[in-house]
Amino acid sequence: MLATAAHAQSGVTIFGTLDLNVTHAKAGGASVTSMSSGGNLIPSRLGFRGTEDLGGGLAASFWLEAQLLPDSGALEGSALFHRRSTVSLSSTAWGEVRLGRDYAPTFWNVSQFAPFGTVGVGGSANIIEGWPFGTGGARTFVRSANSLGYLLPRNLGGVYGQAMVAAAEGADGARYTGARLGYASGPVDVAVAYGETPAKGQTNKVANIGGSYNFGMVKLMGYWLDQRAQGTKHSNWLLGATVPTGDVGTVRLSVAEAKARGAAVAGDGARQIAVGYVHALSKRTALYTAYSRITNRGSAVFMTSEAPEATPGGNASGLQFGISHSF
Q1: Is 68 within 8 Å of 44 (Cβ atoms)?
Q2: Burial of 327 (0-12, 13-18, 19+ CB in 10 A)
């Protein structure tokens, strides 16, 4: 006999973003102008989420999110909901247990504490080695599949955090163990994260720390990242700021540095300088522009999004104009 439903279902929410821009990118002596749908403010996406109140502060939730390519109308990736696919059980007192494909704890600091996030010509990901997978054969820098995660409750006086373990299920470089711990109160937000992934007979390690402080007239932010695999070390730092201009505009600025150490990569590195502006037409719609320049050293071949193949030690740049609409 089926039990009578005693608690209300909050329903299913359909959400997403359509972000399109025209990008002119250069690398070495080549250039290309294209319509980019990878996003500059927020990646284009379509998602479904819902929560059921189970009573007593307990709730069950799901989240399905797919990557869109609105310039062609296609979906990106071989898996439909490869951005996120989770089901969870949460308690206001004890936190949340989450299963499925989700962001790794070590991803958040390089996105949250960068003015451009990780996308677009100014994104911090442009000069992170191995993005979006990681170094040394790892495949877990941004997301992990087959994961079991725990998130702290939201009533700890500003303390937040999460831990995750992910099973490899036969795929080398897919096993992950990591955690993140942070504190946010008033104008201050700071967090530290660490993760490990076995791959190719070694353990790949990722550590980062990031933070921001909002002065009102300007919000300063930055992070430091360290990735280590056998015989190599890749480090990154970023300093940035967002500056409100009136009620509808925001200027974004960042400078970032990448450096490699190890016998095979000694002297490799890059610097990225980026500037941009966002003009909000409403709470959901914005116009934006961004420009960045990457200077490579040694045999590094970092480039901006949408750029043609770079030459070792050469320069790369990108200029974008776009519109982003969330629903």
Answers
A1: yes
A2: exposed
How far does CA 55 lie from the centroid of its chain?
33
* pTM for this predicted structure: 0.92
Q: What is the pLDDT of residues 205-234, one digit of tens each?
A: 999 999 999 999 999 999 999 999 888 899
Number of other residues whose CB lies within 10 A of the CB of residue 294: 28
For residues 252 and 289, give the distance between their C-alpha atoms in angstroms, rounded to a whole number: 10
**Measured between alpha carbons, how far is 139 from 198 in angstroms, rounded to an integer?**
10
CB 113 within 8 A of CB 223: yes
**Sequence-separated (6 or more) residues with CB below 8 Å from residue 141:** 104, 106, 107, 128, 130, 131, 132, 133, 134, 206, 227
**How is residue 153 annotated by DSSP?**
-
Average pLDDT over residues 108-114: 98
Q: Give the integer Cα–Cα distance in Å for 275 and 253.
A: 5
- Give the tens place of pLDDT for each residue, 16-59: 999 999 999 999 888 999 887 666 778 899 999 999 999 999 99
